[in-house]
Amino acid sequence: MKEDKTHDDGSRTRQSPENKVHENPVQKNYVLEDFVKENKVLMAHGGGGRAARSLIQELISPVFDNPELSRLEDAARIPGIPGNNPRVVMTTDSYVVTPRFFPGGDIGKLSVCGTVNDLVTTGARPAALSVGFILEEGFSLKELEKIIKSMKQTADSVPVALITGDTKVVERGRGDGIYITTAGVGILPEGVFLSPDNIEPGDAVLINGPIGNHEAAIISVRDKFSLGVEVVSDCTPLARLITKITEAVPEVRCARDPTRGGVASILIELVESSGYGITIDEDKLPVDEPVSNLCEVLGMDPLYMANEGKMVVIVPENQTKHCLEVMRSVPAGKRSTVIGSVTKDKPRLVVNTPYGSSRVVTMPKGEQLPRIC
Amino acid sequence: MKEDKTHDDGSRTRQSPENKVHENPVQKNYVLEDFVKENKVLMAHGGGGRAARSLIQELISPVFDNPELSRLEDAARIPGIPGNNPRVVMTTDSYVVTPRFFPGGDIGKLSVCGTVNDLVTTGARPAALSVGFILEEGFSLKELEKIIKSMKQTADSVPVALITGDTKVVERGRGDGIYITTAGVGILPEGVFLSPDNIEPGDAVLINGPIGNHEAAIISVRDKFSLGVEVVSDCTPLARLITKITEAVPEVRCARDPTRGGVASILIELVESSGYGITIDEDKLPVDEPVSNLCEVLGMDPLYMANEGKMVVIVPENQTKHCLEVMRSVPAGKRSTVIGSVTKDKPRLVVNTPYGSSRVVTMPKGEQLPRIC
Q1: Which of A306, B79, B292, B296 could bond A215 through an S-S bridge, CB–CB 3.0 to 4.6 Å?
Q2: For residues B42 and B46, what is the distance between their CA atoms, to the nearest angstrom?
Q3: Which B residues, 145 through 184, put their C-beta within 8 Å of a C-beta on chain A?
Q4: How far apart are CA A172 and CA A68, in angstroms?
């Protein structure tokens, strides 16, 4: 299948160390070409990379033509709620992860964590979730029960209420057991709204712990052969982390959860939307040993790997120490650290290597791994 | 496939006229048996009938254990929004209709109408929609563009804003082109909350036009052989209809949109939740000729057929004439009529036939047609 071959080539090349220094020419206009030539949906369109962004920016966003949607943030403010405008935010994500159960979580837990974490990137407090199930005929009801119990347990831990839902069934061969779409509504406390618009040169870039664990966990269960070691997904709701930060560090600029496309993709989105540069130090990026081992074996880059319990937080430089202390006081933030800073340079993501050199990191074309979430 | 055979038998039997008089014994505990014996998802679980309700009431609802969810209404109130509690409502539905394009609509228009209509059953004004796309690898981007343009056009006609979304892609053979899950948030005007709890004996049961058109439209395109006539779906957003009613008839009790399972299913839900009986006159049920012809041919009952632009409205008896005038002043309500009334009888749905006899109508087991919405 042409596009898959291209897709794989693209990703491999992008990820192999020796190719990080410059952008891979093979990828130039890859997506636009496909739009024209193939004009069909590719697996890459579901990734966190350039293909997915073209689909949204060139096809979906222009049609829907809504200012909140066009901001392409993880959550959007709902207009016109009397007395609260615009303090109610909404988000949605569909979850198609395979396998449905993985070390550290399952599609149910993921469907709550992912949507809660999108909500809280704005600083909102989660208020309610809705859930839509698309079940494949013949799917085990026992498995369904396990999954919804996992959703309930995760929602209770936030806490957030699952208040409404829907179930559809499709014929065998028209689905894959279960797909879940959760939508979330959250409330912005008075005066709180985290946004890339707040970013200033000199700001510090923080993250709440090691990166790549979710994607590594999925890989480790999909390709058992690849390594004996089992990696556990970081799949966790981060509502408490963000609440603590917004309460203790009101000057916090913005927060983003680096899921599909990893830390690289969201930092590139932040430089593009803020108009400033961001420089990070590779040796400051926290990566667990099993994850870096797996990356060595497969020639992958943790910077592009999906996380489901991580938050990149940007704060004024003089708040760095204080914010780190606050983040580390929360279980999900124990290993929080500074990874870089916002610069006056042109809007691009620069990574300083341990060898003293530096490279410009570009948006990955597709996703390194399909159906990661 | 055993369950499908049972499913079909069940439905056919349920629908064939000579069996309407009494409940079909074959169906007794059908679902519970399957839960135990097969313990897997059946197409019937996606219907508007008993199987779907068992799945929700026996499996999902007890686990999620949320008072709003347990009310099993079309939309739920969001708790804890400062100044608005509980005036913000939320709903969600997944859409898997096949074919994706049908007379009178497409999966995109349907995904906006269905969710808007669920919102307004509470009396809420639609404020925002979110959309989650699950695309199958290889799906035509041109078709996707047609579908999202249709969503936008329908949303603008409400009007309601599509403010946030997500796109996932699954491999060929793991989906069916496109599945859409929309969630909606709406605002209840001060003092407005339509609910079956408001129903009183003597209330009139109104509907805004002829029934069965959506399901008949889907059948007419799926089985072209069955009849030369093309039926057009009633797929329409009903926000304006409900706004007019709640403004002009503040005493209105409740509203329900009879989608999967048809008018029969929602009236049975209303008798169960209100504790009162409902009696309707079969000859007062508005049915377009092409639809009744199709029902004759296929032995189906319009009372169980899905609608996507209909609203059953319950008002105090003395408001009937006034409410009819208001409903008829809206394009979507031109053919509004009275079909029955709420009684002091035991909570069951009774249908008076044109022949002077009457029958108790029970919940259909599954859906007459899979993937109707």
Answers
A1: A306
A2: 8
A3: 145, 148-149, 151-152, 161-171, 173-176, 179, 181, 183
A4: 38
